Amino acid sequence: MSTVQISASDVNKLRQQTGAGMMDCKKALTETNGDFEAAIDFLRKKGAKVAASRQDRESNEGVVIARTSEDFKRGVVIELNCETDFVAKNAEFVAFGNAIANIAVENKPATIEELYNLEIDIENSRVKIGDAIIDKTGKIGEKIGVSKYEVIEGDKVVAYIHGNYRLGVLVGLSKAVAGADEAGKDVAMQIAAMNPVAIDKDGVDATTIERETEIAKEQIRAEGKPEEMVEKIAAGKLNKFYKDSTLLNQEFVKDSSKTVAQFLDTVDKGLTVTAFKRVALGA
């Protein structure tokens, strides 16, 4: 065991030179009796080299975590990836994903880069999330990282995680009324199952509308319909697309006699969805 006293300035100097995490730098200096060159080699062998060498590896396994703030006015969903299902199911890895999601809810970063610069508690020390991820990469031996980060805000935000952390959904509702929690979960389950493209037809982007219209026209022409009927029939097919693919117009999965919009109206008059996000692992 080293008897050399490692100062905070030494740790910071090594961190500036290598970009490695604070705890990694402290450990490297301790293990090498304060020898900076040896400490750099130590870091490269233990963590930094593993992180760098695995950047071209596929990391399509992992967990999706959805979380709301305590006042249910804000929600985040993150996808934390790794390379194997074995690591994805590890309790420590899942806990790490939950900790990152909690920090995102509390600190409101705008991007993954900003999220990586926030600090997290690791072994009774505060380190940047980005540094903690590098450290985890070194320890686990797999490429890991946050690939998706989504945020919504609203009068009532509900989070839902489906399929053992394989899919996460956030739903923003227009009012925080009695029954909103259960209704929000029901709508989130609808989104998980049916994967709508938008809340309603006004939210469908022009590119999607153009693509669906062109597909419909080609189908109609292939059926041998007269050209003068193509536009009218295509408009009907587009309306069918809106019904099938936009959330409020979809048949409610738990009661097909209602649309999602009609279901929400039974919970509270005028209650509707203001935003949603759906993140599926590896999608």
Question: What features would you highlight for this structure?
Answer:
single chain, about 280 residues, alpha+beta, three-stranded antiparallel beta sheet, 11 helices, about 20% strand, cytoplasm, Transl_elong_EFTs/EF1B
What do these coordinates show?
- The protein has helices spanning 8-18, 22-31, 36-53, 85-88, 91-107, 112-116, 129-140, 180-194, 206-222, 227-245, 260-267, and strands at 61-68, 74-82, 119-122, 125-128, 145-153, 156-162, 167-173, 251-252, 255-259, 273-280.
- The protein has eleven helices and ten strands.
- The chain is an alpha+beta fold.
- It is found in: Cytoplasm.
Question: What's this, in brief?
Answer:
By secondary structure, the protein is of the alpha+beta class. The chain has helices at 8-18, 22-31, 36-53, 85-88, 91-107, 112-116, 129-140, 180-194, 206-222, 227-245, 260-267; strands at residues 61-68, 74-82, 119-122, 125-128, 145-153, 156-162, 167-173, 251-252, 255-259, 273-280. Helix 1 crosses helix 2, helix 3 (36-53) crosses helix 7 (129-140) and helix 9 (206-222) packs across helix 10 (227-245).
